[in-house]
Amino acid sequence: METAVQKIQHVIMLVDDEAAIRNLGHMLLTQAGYNVLLAKDSKEALRIFADVAGRVDIVVCDVVMPGTSGIVLAKQLLSEVPGLKVVIMSGYSDEETHLRIKEVADHAVFLRKPFRADALLGAIQTLITA
Questions:
Q1: 54-87 pLDDT, tens per residue?
Q2: Fold of the domain built from segment(s) 4-129
Q3: CA 10 to CA 48: how far, in whole Å?
Q4: How would you classify residue 81: left for phi > 0, otherwise alpha for psi between -120 and 50, otherwise beta?
């Protein structure tokens, strides 16, 4: 089991267009001992990702966002860092959304909104230990 000292080394980028989700996610993840970077959309996420030069361990992103979707963002980031881990969040359960998520399934855990805090932390822990 990881200690808080080990967790602090993990950097998580949370990308969601809803400020409430970003703020709640930030609070939850920092209380769990992670370093958290926030982005409101894919454009901002790409800029932050470039600025930190490969120090992001896990990207947590929503599927549906203005501009570029979370799936397109994940694929773009995975092309830059093939081993990157991703948590994909979505409140949609239609077949098209699931097919799009499968495009990054080898590197991603899917989290259906709404979810409990322990589900998010569990998804991140699953990716860290994979």
A1: 899 999 999 989 899 999 999 999 999 988 999 9
A2: Rossmann fold (3.40.50)
A3: 16
A4: beta
